[in-house]
Design goal:
5 strands, alpha/beta, Nucleotidyltransferase, domain 5, 123 residues, globular, 24% strand, five-stranded mixed beta sheet, 33% helix, single chain
Length: 123
């Protein structure tokens, strides 16, 4: 039966049979100008990169941009917050300076990029 085939394909549920990942992950939060410049150089030199924006609302007419994330390689990404305002929020880079620095690269039609939920981000 299909359920028996599925059980065989997935194993018998024994935890010792669970696959393990050998890939180390490197996720970072960009909070300094030096870290931002390092990631900016990596993005500019990358053949392809992915990005996503973080906002305060799903309604693009009300949303405020509070951060952006990037990935170049599998298992490695960075989040750059610049609009988080809550008790204990870390010091963040200036939003306008960050966007000014990113704008030429994001608008470059010759630069390959992938956008997570890009229709929303472009509205």
């Amino acid at each position: 039966s299909w359920s028996e085939e599925l059980a065989k394909a997935e194993g018998d549920g024994d935890e010792s049979q669970a696959p393990t990942s050998t890939n180390a992950t490197r996720y970072t939060t960009i909070l300094t100008e030096a870290d931002f410049q390092g990631w900016l150089a990596r993005l500019e030199g990358a053949e392809l990169f992915a990005f996503d924006t973080e906002t305060t609302s799903l309604d693009y007419m009300e949303a405020q941009l509070v951060g952006v994330s990037f990935a170049i390689e599998p298992f490695e990404a960075a989040y750059l917050p610049f609009g988080h305002d809550y008790l204990g929020a870390p010091q963040q880079l200036d939003r306008d300076k960050v966007l000014t620095a990113l704008k030429p690269m994001l608008e470059d039609p010759g630069k390959a990029k992938l956008g997570q939920n890009l229709k929303y981000d472009m509205s």
